[in-house]
Amino acid sequence: MSKLLAVSPLGFTTPHTETVGAYSISEVTDRAMASVTARKDCGAAVKTILKKILQQPAPEVGGYCTGEIEAFWTGQSQWMLAADFDTHEDIVDSFAGTFKGKASLTEQTDGWCRFAITGPDLDRLCSLLCNIDMRQLTAGKASRTSIEHIGCFVLRAADDNIHIIGPRSSAASLHHAICAAAKSAPF
Fold first, then answer.
1. Nearest to 59 by CA among 39, 83, 42, 76
2. What are 60-93's pLDDT values in tens digits?
3. How confident is the model at residue 3 (pLDDT cuts 50, 70, 90)?
4. CA nearest neighbour of 80 among 67, 101, 64, 97
5. How far apart (Å, rounded) are the C-alpha atoms in residues 123 and 126?
6. Rounded to whole angstroms, how far apart are CA atoms 90 and 143?
7. pTM of this prediction?
8. Which domains does the chain show, CATH number per domain?
9. Of 10, 25, 101, 170, which sits with the fewest C-beta atoms within 10 Å of its C-beta?
10. What's residue 109's pLDDT?
């Protein structure tokens, strides 16, 4: 029987971290992800359930909340949940009963790659990557954008910490774009 070996989106057996200038760019592979979409006429009920799960209000437009369970707004009555992979490997099954048929949950873990970027003046770095006004994207905010023609989410965890989530199939291209911007950031 073959022995399968899990690899990160960039093809490594452990998450890859790279330092480029003043920035640290790290693959994040320890998060399980699921999309949550409220079913017809259940938006308010799903928000109430999310508030219990998150222990804070469900993110509104452009919102992102951190904690044991992360969530960010992706569309009208739609959110993405992320949780520790070790405790929520089957994230859909973990929460399906909680929503009591009021929302559709879809496994998203292997469809996305995630990069954590830390360093000074992330606003300048992001100005080279995408068209987000980072002065408006303060901690606790999220935005959907395009980076090198790749549809991505940018989550602001802190002034010196952002996460970029993009399609796993574009991980190498996205990583290259981030590294290229980091090399040019002190313009």
1. 76
2. 999 999 999 999 999 999 999 999 999 999 999 9
3. confident
4. 64
5. 5
6. 26
7. 0.94
8. 17-29+111-184 (3.30.1360.120), 31-109 (3.30.70.1520)
9. 101
10. 95
